[in-house]
Write a structure and sequence with these properties.
Elements: H1 17-22, H2 25-50, H3 54-71, H4 76-88, H5 90-101, H6 107-120, H7 128-135, H8 141-151, E1 161-165, H9 168-179, E2 185-190, H10 197-211, E3 215-221, H11 224-227, H12 233-239, E4 243-247, E5 261-262, E6 265-269, E7 273-277, E8 294-296, E9 299-303, H13 307-318, H14 327-331, E10 344-350, H15 358-369, E11 373-377, H16 385-396, E12 400-406, H17 412-419, H18 422-428, E13 431-435, E14 438-440, E15 444-447, E16 451-455, H19 461-466, E17 467-475, H20 480-491, E18 494-496, H21 499-503, H22 507-516
Parallel strand pairs: 2-3, 3-4, 5-17, 8-14, 11-12, 12-13
Antiparallel strand pairs: 1-9, 2-6, 6-7, 7-9, 10-17, 11-15, 13-18, 15-16, 16-17
Length: 523
């Protein structure tokens, strides 16, 4: 049977081009937000005309915000960006800084996320023998686990088998196979879902499973309703028996909470099998359609007790706005153990609403502890000072640091920004490569043949500071050899960034990158 002719699509086709743009939800919302900003500016200017004595108070406020900025825990690059903003527009810049730091848009959401994390503690227990085993070799994995457990509930598990998929189409085939085996529940949390061949094939299975009594839940980021899905898509799925919701849906009101998106990619089945990695549910991720050349992405499948960590992560986000708790119901279901599985597995997630930078901390821990090599794949390179220092220091002390980035970008500004880091990294000994066949969307760290991370966390400000993220930390797992092999095979298809190529880089990239770098923490 030709499955491409039988895929399920729920949304009605829409007209393309200018008509689609003008009558789109995005266009209407953008107009309403611009209108709100315009009203606020008009009111401010009218007050300033009638009450010139407010000028002194305004400048006192600017000074107070500058003092606050210098004493905040904000990254130094972000502080410079805000200072630049306030040097050109002192009063609007100070007001905007106050507005974003006051947390009006996400203060309640922050409390709810923290409450769900606290409520979920105790549903996953750390096997003591595992911590003792990994603590004997001095790798620091036990210390990393203790740190991550302060941010959430992230035990280290053994008896979990891990399969690595070097391409999105490999993960897709495995997903379809495992979905067919679901008996109790299917939980899916993805940043992007777009109707087409990939999602249609998956949706066909989900609808059948829901009708068979399996609890099927789908959560996608609210931005999908502005870009890849219609605003009523959750209702369309619910009509098919699938529980669905958008995380942080966009509404036509100015708010700072829109900056915090759910960038996770999670599929967990019956608490026994879980998938994680960079692959979203859209056709370019499996090279069914071509966007930006060949799409290089990666994923892992877990079978065993570590899969239940993704059940917990999903339930934390699914229930963040609910008064009821489902942890007892779902976390009490029996998992499974893969006897004979090698190594240790630690799924973890990162929230932009707490004081921890878990995603960046794990990457830096790998860089600082590496003795032989650290090999990295990332679609973006927009670094803060700490992470750039860690990369340079690792290379300067003799660690083989190699970094694969896209050869064909999906975003020209981000591509230009990445190039602003090339000189400092190259001079420190970091070897940089660009994937000539197309776009690298993989988020992979592999080090010393014993450590690896595969997940959703990019090397950019969005992932490290502004998104909800997740990843899988692997220690002494057999598939680490597969990850390193895939890195070597991908490297063979790359061009190396050299001193000469940096000097001869296109002027347009240099100009755009240097200008964009001034506001890179806001991107």
């Amino acid at each position: 049977m030709d499955h491409s002719e039988t895929i399920v699509n729920l949304a009605k086709p829409v007209r393309k081009g200018l008509f689609k743009l003008i009558f789109s939800r995005f266009f209407i919302f953008a107009l309403l937000i611009i209108l709100q900003i315009g009203i606020a500016v008009t009111v401010y200017l009218r007050f300033q005309e009638k009450l010139p004595t407010l000028l002194a108070i305004q400048w006192i406020f600017v000074f107070v915000m500058i003092v606050y900025l210098f004493n905040s825990g904000m990254d130094s690059s972000a502080k410079l960006t805000w200072m630049l903003f306030m040097s050109f527009l002192p009063i609007p810049g100070a007001v905007f800084l106050w507005w974003t730091q006051s947390n009006f848009g996400h203060r309640m959401e922050k409390k709810m996320v923290a409450a769900k994390i606290q409520e979920s503690r105790g549903f996953l227990e750390q096997p003591e023998n595992v911590l003792q085993e990994i603590g004997r070799d001095g790798s620091g994995t036990d210390d990393l686990s203790k740190y991550l457990n302060k941010t959430g509930c992230f035990p280290v598990f053994d008896k979990t088998s891990v399969t690595y998929y070097p391409l999105g189409e490999d993960k897709f085939a495995a997903m379809l196979e495992e979905l067919e085996k679901a008996e109790k529940y299917i939980f899916m949390e993805y940043f992007i879902i777009e109707e087409g061949y990939m999602w249609g094939r998956i949706l066909d299975v989900l609808i059948r499973k829901a009708k068979a009594g399996v609890d099927v839940r789908v959560m996608f980021d609210g931005m999908c309703e502005m870009s890849t899905l219609p605003p009523n898509y959750s209702k369309l799925l619910q009509k098919e028996g699938i529980k669905a919701r958008a995380f942080s849906p966009i509404s036509p009101f100015v708010s700072s909470h829109y900056n915090y998106r759910d960038h996770r990619k999670i599929l967990v089945i019956d608490g026994k099998v879980a998938f994680n990695g960079g692959v979203n549910l859209a056709d370019e991720y499996i090279n069914h359609i071509e966007r930006f050349g060949h799409w290089k992405d990666t994923a892992v499948m877990l079978k065993g007790p570590a899969a239940r960590s993704f059940t917990l992560m999903f339930l934390q986000m699914w229930n963040v706005r609910e008064n009821t708790s489902e942890f007892e119901e779902w976390m009490s279901l029996p998992g499974c153990e893969e006897e004979g599985a090698s190594g240790y597995v630690m799924p973890y997630c990162d929230s932009p609403l707490d004081e921890y930078k878990a995603g960046e901390a794990v990457y830096m821990d790998i860089l600082y502890r590496a003795t032989d090599y650290v090999h990295i794949m990332s679609p973006y390179l927009i670094l803060d000072d700490e992470l750039e220092t860690a990369l340079c220091f690792a290379a300067q002390r003799g660690v083989d640091v190699k970094l694969i980035l896209p050869g064909i970008p999906d975003k020209k500004v981000a591509y230009s920004l990445a190039k602003t880091h090339y000189r400092a990294l190259h001079d420190a000994g970091v070897k940089i490569y660009e994937y000539t066949p197309g776009f690298v969307h993989a988020k992979v760290f592999v080090s010393d043949d014993i450590k690896a991370v595969v997940g959703t966390i990019n090397l950019d400000y969005r992932s490290l500071y502004h998104h909800f993220e997740c990843a899988t930390y692997l220690y002494k797992v057999d598939c680490i050899a597969d990850i390193e092999k895939d890195f070597a095979e991908t490297l063979a298809q790359c061009r190396e960034v050299t001193d000469e190529s940096i000097r001869k880089e296109k002027f347009s990239y240099k100009l755009v990158g240097r200008l964009a770098k001034m506001i890179s923490p806001l991107m």
